[in-house]
């Protein structure tokens, strides 16, 4: 038998060919040109009776690899697993130690669920396989401490100079809310607020992070503009709801980032629909299709849509998170899908090693 020629650790040539062909032809939103064009160091070994596909990828995507492994297992009638290392590269140079990429989460309008989405996006990126931190820059209403279950907690300092961030379920977190009480934070204005923010960013002893999510204050005024200029943001994500008034403000938000020449990775539409608990029917309480429309108009991506769901509010209020309770639950999967889209957009739009970015550069130079 052919298999007798292989050592116990070798995958048969037939299986290798089948896996390569499948991965080569595989297409999805985050792999528009297939998986193999962006994968490095692809090898296959036998691990007991299972095939282990090893590779290095440039952005986290554990959830999608899990689905691909299931499809390959069906195809080969043999268990296939992935063992992937993520090698996220910084797309923009900056001097903040330990952090590779800063992603700003903003909204033109207050109350659209920006902080809730920022926290869940951070946990989504962790669930997909990366090291992540969050910086609550919402100086006028820091809600991240509550959402992480860290209200009242105080960070410490090992050397008396840098503040050690707090940690909640593997997420490193810093917020003005850890340092001053809410009443004091709200009276801060202009320069004072931006100085406080700059200190939070630069004087925190961040661990090694692939992504730092910055929860920006809502709106598009001077303070937001200053912060956007102050932070070496790799890419921005704009949160909106489908209501006309929120959409109009989201457009203003994108224009603000354009003004300071920061790339917008896309839009997340929050409270897009309500799903009936009994029959599963989706009702679009605040209108339909708005996020998609403004994303198309701004030539950016709709990174995902989230339901108006009581579980999301309850989690945010109680300091828990759907992803940490059940990383494959319905709401968790939506956030993880958005997290993958954000990470992939950052890579394809901005990393010079990305085949898509490289393509754009070639076209421009003609
Ligand atoms: N998809 C959702 N489903 C249900 N409730 C949600 C959803 N998203 C956010 N919420 C709730 O809406 C309220 C406002 O959310 P959040 O504080 O995240 O908004 P924000 O845009 O950050 O507000 P602010 O402008 O004050 O910073 C919170 O009570 C939150 O739990």
TrEMBL record:
Gene Ontology CC: cytosol
Q: Which GO terms describe its molecular function?
A: 4 iron, 4 sulfur cluster binding; ATP binding; ATP hydrolysis activity; ATP-dependent FeS chaperone activity; metal ion binding
| Entry keyword set | ATP-binding, Hydrolase, Iron, Iron-sulfur, Metal-binding, Nucleotide-binding
What InterPro entries does the entry give? Mrp-like_CS, Mrp/NBP35_ATP-bd, NUBPL-like, P-loop_NTPase, YlxH/NBP35
Coiled-coil parts of chain: none
**Residues that bind ATP:** 108-115
Report which superkingdom the organism of origin falls in: Bacteria
Q: Key word Hydrolase present in the record?
A: yes
Q: Which Pfam families match?
A: ParA
GO BP terms: namely: iron-sulfur cluster assembly
Its job: Binds and transfers iron-sulfur (Fe-S) clusters to target apoproteins. Can hydrolyze ATP.
Family, according to the entry, reads as follows:
Belongs to the Mrp/NBP35 ATP-binding proteins family.
Quaternary context: Homodimer.
Q: What is this protein called?
A: Iron-sulfur cluster carrier protein
Taxonomic path: Bacteria, Pseudomonadati, Pseudomonadota, Gammaproteobacteria, Alteromonadales
């Amino acid at each position: 038998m052919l298999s007798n020629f292989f050592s116990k650790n070798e995958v048969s040539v037939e299986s290798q060919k089948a896996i390569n062909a499948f991965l080569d032809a595989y297409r999805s939103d985050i792999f528009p040109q297939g998986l193999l064009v962006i994968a490095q160091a692809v090898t296959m070994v036998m691990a007991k009776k299972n095939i282990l596909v090893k590779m290095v990828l440039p952005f986290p995507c554990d959830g999608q690899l899990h689905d691909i492994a299931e499809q390959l297992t069906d195809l080969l009638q043999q268990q296939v697993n992935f063992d992937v290392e993520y090698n996220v590269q910084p797309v923009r140079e900056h001097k903040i130690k330990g952090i590779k990429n800063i992603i700003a989460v903003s909204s033109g309008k207050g109350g659209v669920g920006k902080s809730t989405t920022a926290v869940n996006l951070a946990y989504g990126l962790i669930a997909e396989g990366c090291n992540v931190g969050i910086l609550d820059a919402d100086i006028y209403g820091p809600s991240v401490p509550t959402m992480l279950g860290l209200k009242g907690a105080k960070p410490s300092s090992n050397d008396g100079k840098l503040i050690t961030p707090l940690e909640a379920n593997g997420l490193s977190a810093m917020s003005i809310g850890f340092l001053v009480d809410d009443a004091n934070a709200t009276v801060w204005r202009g320069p004072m607020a931006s100085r406080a923010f700059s200190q939070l960013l630069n004087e925190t002893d961040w661990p090694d992070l692939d992504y730092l999510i910055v929860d920006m204050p809502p709106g598009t005024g001077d303070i937001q503009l200053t912060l956007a200029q102050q932070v070496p943001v790799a890419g921005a994500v704009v949160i909106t709801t489908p209501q006309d008034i929120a959409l109009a403000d989201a457009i203003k938000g994108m224009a603000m980032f354009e003004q300071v020449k920061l790339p917008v990775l896309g839009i997340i539409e929050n409270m897009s629909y309500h799903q009936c608990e009994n029959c599963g029917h989706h009702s679009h309480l605040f209108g339909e299709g708005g996020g998609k429309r403004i994303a198309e108009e701004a030539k950016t991506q709709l990174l995902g849509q989230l339901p108006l769901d009581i579980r999301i509010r309850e989690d945010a209020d109680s300091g828990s998170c759907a992803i940490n309770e059940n990383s494959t639950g319905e709401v968790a999967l939506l956030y993880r899908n958005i997290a993958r889209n954000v990470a992939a957009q950052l890579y394809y739009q901005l990393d010079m090693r990305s085949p898509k970015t490289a393509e754009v550069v070639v076209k421009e130079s003609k």
